[in-house]
Specification:
- The chain is mainly α.
- The longest helix is centred in the N-terminal third of the chain and has 12 residues.
């Protein structure tokens, strides 16, 4: 539950950088966490790498 909340907050905060092709109002689900973490780590720079690493734990 904590990972899901963190993924949703980070999705909203880094949407323009990592998820520009996804709708802004997309609701991240628990099944999406690996995809979200991978996007953060690929396109999010240092901040995204840190967030993605926390989501992968």
């Amino acid at each position: 539950m904590v990972r899901l909340r963190e993924a949703r907050r980070a999705f909203a905060r880094l949407h323009a950088r990592c998820f520009w092709s996804s709708p802004r109002n997309y609701v991240v689900t628990a099944d999406d966490i690996p995809w979200v973490a991978r996007q953060f780590m690929t396109y999010g720079g240092r901040e995204g790498w840190r967030i993605g690493g926390r989501l992968c734990r």
